[in-house]
Write a structure and sequence with these properties.
Length: 679
């Protein structure tokens, strides 16, 4: 009987595996070291967890393969075919820099060097009319040259192809005739949108990643089949859904940033289980912290993201802010004599000073050990931390330079780290028009539960949720997603001139394409959910806002009013007298994947006893005698007041004074911050 669901999240240090039993809803986890070839780490973890792949109904995977390929530039030779005169669009970019004031720091070069950006004669005007058909003699010569160069992938990027992709399609046909087996991406298929740099950049990334990702997914799929798995491998993409290897062939760049989306999905799901429609995810690991936001049950979606500055990938993505704050982040002093924290990190090797691998510079982990918030035995006794080395690093690195007592110095390190993470939460909430007091904070990752309550108090967030397995929550996110694809079509008209019938016809075309693609992936019609939206803006702007659209669209006026309301919420003002323009028609197609429910646990009334007690500094002035519980002994319904420490295999939970914690029926710990109103 196929009753298991398996999710795998591959990180730089560990590969996390989450196994759910569909019958009982119970979850177990496994961690194994990541390997040079991620597939070896995955299969090793599957073996270590004792998983019989013939009993697995769903195997879902969040991968960093695409992200790492772009970062390291380990990409196959990729070419670009452009309209004559436009080969340098992706090098000119937007003529901006990540740091405008750093004269000597240049933007990294494009993924395709200029010598491999070839041109052909063709032209389409801004309304989609063909001014010049593709010169096929030139096209065949370009194809011949690229074949001789042994190019592994090609991006076809023609001007105004978003309005009419006929010339691009013909160029692709010629390339495939001359170079059979070489993947070809066209901008009109990958991203049919205005703004040529963003369209070209996304298409180039998609082409360059195609051989890498297709090779990886093919090899992983074969390894799984050899060991008994008979279903499709599902791959998490940045939009918060999954796709099959067949879809990856056409949209490889959707897997760039795949890993960080899983945590955002899991945090939203867990918050809703606990009764919170508004939630902020705080995923703090060893090197970085990822912050996400869900409002009214919906994750924030963005198209303004990139792996390397200057080269946007305009596929819809769950918005996640990443900062350099983790357990291994280093405490240091800047030239002005101020204490800083991160983004430099001790990493996994040599790691924090308390790992006893040679590092002497203090980290957040060392500070938590000094304060007693973190014990000296982790991962079920597999890792032992040296408290003396932690004290020595904090004393030499911070206490002596600032004239502080070691516990005060450790407290200062943690306060700076918490301030950095609080700023990231402000960026994704307050700066977007959301009040943190209306949200719950979901703290996960190996270090999130150590800092969650302090960050919540800083931002007046009334509740903190710590999942049952914080360290592998991102892997859980891979089990909670559906098939998802995004479709769009440009529609550039003032609202006063927009034709509701034409808009409805465009939605119908997109829906037909969506149904065909989901059917190809084996999704039944009854499991399809289609969500419409229209990007709109005030006349003269170039940044747009998405407004939900009804089915069918019969009137433009309600859409304009909805846009004014959304603009008011996002930017705190609206201009009813200013004309509104429509920019793009969007369709999100979701193929619902059956999901097993997490196991519920009835309250037992048992009151567990702490396994030990220790002195913990929750402030710099004094230590507090604090009970230390084992997470697995805490039953549903158990309520306890801070201070308390809860230890488990993959994390440590800090419940500070003036808080109350409760274990809910799903075994989440919900920490209520006293003095803050409930959401």
């Amino acid at each position: 009987m196929q009753n298991l669901r398996v999710a795998v999240d591959v990180g730089g240090t560990f590969t996390d595996i989450c196994i759910m039993d569909e019958t009982t809803g119970r979850i177990r986890v496994e961690k194994t070291s990541s390997s040079a070839d991620p597939i070896d780490g995955i299969m090793s973890g599957v073996e270590k967890a004792g998983i019989d792949l013939s009993k697995v109904a769903l195997f879902s995977h969040g991968t960093t393969v695409a992200t790492n390929a772009l970062i390291t530039r380990r990409l196959p030779r990729t070419a670009m075919v452009c309209t004559r005169g436009f080969r340098d669009v992706i090098e000119i970019r937007r003529a901006n820099k990540e740091d405008l004031w750093d004269t000597y720091k240049d933007v990294v070069p494009p993924y395709v060097p200029r010598r491999d950006r070839l041109v052909v004669t063709e032209r389409v005007d801004a309304q989609g009319g063909i001014v010049a058909t593709l010169d096929e003699d030139e096209a065949r010569e370009v194809a011949r040259i690229l074949k001789r160069r042994n190019v592994a992938a090609v991006a076809v990027c023609f001007m105004n192809a978003f309005m009419n992709g006929a010339n691009e399609r013909r160029m692709k046909e010629i390339l495939m005739e001359v170079m059979p087996g070489v993947p070809v991406s066209t901008s009109s298929e990958v991203l049919p949108e205005i703004f040529e740099h963003e369209r070209f950049s996304t298409t180039v990334a998609n082409a360059a990643l195609s051989p890498v990702v297709v090779d990886y997914t093919s090899r992983l799929g074969k390894r799984l089949q050899q060991d008994g798995y008979v279903r499709d491998l599902l791959l998490l993409h940045t939009g918060g859904g999954v796709m099959t290897p067949k879809s990856v062939e056409d949209f490889a760049a959707r897997l760039a940033g795949s890993g960080i989306a899983a945590g955002a999905i899991a945090s939203k799901y867990i918050a809703e289980l606990c009764g919170f429609r508004n939630s902020i995810g705080l995923d703090m690991g060893g090197t970085s912290t990822d912050v996400s936001l869900a409002y009214d049950g919906q994750s924030r979606i963005t198209k303004d993201w990139f792996i390397e500055f200057g080269y946007p990938i305009r596929f819809s993505s769950i918005e996640v802010l990443t900062i350099g704050a983790g357990g291994g982040s280093l405490a240091w002093t800047d030239e002005a004599g101020s204490l800083r924290n991160g983004p430099q990190s001790a990493g996994a090797n040599p790691g924090p000073a308390c790992y006893a691998k040679g590092n002497r510079q203090p980290t957040n982990t060392d500070a938590n050990v000094v304060l007693g918030r973190l014990g000296t035995s982790l991962a079920g006794g597999k890792i032992t931390l040296d408290a003396d080395l932690a004290f020595e690093a904090v004393r030499e690195g911070v206490a002596e330079p600032f004239g502080l007592e070691p516990h005060s110095a450790a407290d200062a390190i943690i306060r700076v780290a918490n301030a950095n993470m609080s700023d990231a939460v402000r960026l994704i909430s307050i700066s977007r028009g959301y009040d943190p007091r209306d949200f719950a904070l979901v703290a996960f990752g190996g270090a999130g539960a150590l800092h969650g309550a302090a960050i919540a108090r800083e931002l007046s967030i009334p509740a903190v949720i710590v999942p049952p397995n914080p360290g592998v929550t991102s892997a859980l996110g891979c089990l909670l997603v559906d098939m998802q694809h995004d479709f769009s079509e440009s529609y550039l008209k003032p609202a006063n001139d927009a034709d509701a019938t034409a808009i409805e016809d465009a939605f119908v075309r997109l829906e037909q394409e969506a149904l065909e693609r989901l059917a190809h992936e084996g999704v039944a019609d009854k499991d399809v959910l289609l969500q419409r939206s229209i990007d709109m803006m005030y006349l003269g702007q170039w940044r747009s806002l998405a407004v939900a659209a009804p089915a069918p669209v019969t009137d433009i006026a309600p859409l304009v009013e909805a846009f004014h309301r959304e603009h008011q919420r996002e930017y705190n003002f609206r201009r009813d007298e200013t004309p509104v323009s429509l920019f793009r028609i969007n369709l999100k197609a979701v193929g619902m994947v059956p999901k097993a429910s997490l196991a519920k646990h009835e309250p037992t009334g048992l009151i567990p006893q702490p396994k030990t007690r220790r002195s913990v500094w929750f402030a710099a002035d004094a230590a507090v005698d604090t009970p230390v519980y084992e997470r697995e002994t805490l039953p549903a319904g158990f309520v306890f007041k801070g201070p308390a420490i809860v230890e488990q295999l993959d994390s440590t939970v800090v419940v500070p004074p003036e808080t109350t914690a409760e274990v809910d029926t799903y075994l989440n710990i919900i920490i209520r911050i006293e003095g803050e109103s409930n959401v």
